[in-house]
Amino acid sequence: ERSETNPPGVLGKRLRDSAETVVIGGGCVGVSLAYHLAKAGQKDVVLLEKSELTAGSTWHAAGLTTYYHPGINLKKIHYYSIKLFEQLEAETGQAVGFHQPGSIRLASTPVRVNELKYQMTRTHWHPTPQFLIGPEKIQQLFPLLNMDKVLAGLYNPGDGHIDPYSLTMALAAGARMYGAQIYYPAPVTGLTPTADGRWDVQTPHGTIRANRIVNATGFWARELGQMIGFQHPTIPVHHQYVVTATVPEVKALEAELPVIRDLEGSYYLRQERDGLLFGPYEKEEKMKLQDSWIRDGVPPGFGKELFESDLDRIMDHVERAMEMVPVLKNADIINIVSGPITYTPDLLPMIGPHQGARNYWTAIGFGYGIIHSGGVGKFLSDWIVSGEPPYDLIECDPNRYAHWTSVPHLCAKARESYGFNNVVGYPKEERFAGRPTNRVSGVYELLKDRCSMGFHAGWEQPHYFHKPGDDSGYKPSFRRTNWFGLVGRECKLVMEGVGVIDLSPFGKFNVKGEDSHRLLDRLFANTLPKVRERERAGKSQ
């Protein structure tokens, strides 16, 4: 590390010559990975940070922590993170500022109540405590709410918020305690692969030979990827939150308020000391992308800076928050934070080894890096140390994107994903921005007006076909949908007759060699059809 007495840009100690793993990026995710690798016993773990720890998106984050996730696999990430945060101070001696007053997702329409009931059916996959509660219990937990429109809530005890800076410093203290080396300021200036699959990581202070490298550079991820020929589909989004001065009604409370998420109002709100903090997610037509960073790169020196705030852009949400929590109407705003957070096209991070470069791993694209940091550090550490991921996290595979993920597609999907933060989360959801990509099959034009298309790995693939008079179109529901009968008709047709399916999105493997059929017979559930001698003779010519 650089000591306080060293001039800027000068390291306080000599850079290592070699490392088992070099983690690039000193935000909460990168530092968590260094901590977990070192704790798992890996020797020679090095973290390189270009300016100072938490620079980028970590330092200004609102710090929300929640067990909840609408999916199933990522709940494991959230669960591990919270359990880690609960014991990190005792382990490292570093305070983390962790508050656990619980959280409530508010439903103010019948459809939202159905959404909460749907999520309750999925919660039993995990040990996470989660309850569907009524208005009386909600008001008991959050007495400052206007209950006129509140119908129900999804309550997660143990949720809350943490100080991102303190969290990162505690993880860094733990990483050092277990033997990891953290260097800053140490910007990576070049990455050179070696013939044996390792990397030469160049910095102004020297070069480190690494067995593997991990890109955990936040909104610099695209630039680091470009050093080795990748165009990672990540883009910074402007996210704002508002902090108030002391609110007398809040100060008078005996217990800290739970975090609330007003799903219809599309904002979160939590207690901040004796005041309130709330942050909205604007609709896609109002939100702002920092797309110039895609074109021109991140400005040199940008690290702990913020964007200019724009209260007008979020005023609709401010008014909704004032209606739901009336004490806000008389609260003085003391700060509006507007900073960059990183989005991928589908809002999920890119976690794991990246195809196309040996021993290159990514931990990038985190729109919710604080709650993901602990679990992702553990997940990647287990994968790196044991050679296998500890559980399925296929939705975060960095290789789900490819050349079809163009900049216009990235921008369109990031806008859509930000605007979709609090929309109703239906099963089998389809999102239509940025489609189609350049991945369309030869039958796309023929079929597109005769079927409902789904999106798979960049491809448009028919989900079901419709005839004149059918109830067609995308009509999601928590109950039986309009496609149920149409899909049933197709199933009957294939059972009794013949059907053709477009498998363009599926991976294709060419298997060659004398024993290829024996290998495939072992791999597949069924045996391959016998090749007639005449056909085999023809193919061998």
TrEMBL record:
Pfam families referenced in this protein's UniProt entry, alphabetically: DAO (PF01266), FAO_M (PF16350), GCV_T (PF01571)
A GO MF term: dimethylglycine dehydrogenase activity
Organism domain of life: Eukaryota
Residues annotated as domain FAD dependent oxidoreductase central: 387-438
Residues annotated as domain FAD dependent oxidoreductase: 21-383
Domain GCVT N-terminal: residue ranges: 449-530
InterPro entries: FAD-dep_OxRdtase, FAD/NAD-bd_sf, FAO_M, GCVT_N, TrmE/GcvT-like
GO CC terms: mitochondrial matrix
Protein name from the UniProt record: Dimethylglycine dehydrogenase, mitochondrial-like
Annotated organism of origin: Sinocyclocheilus rhinocerous
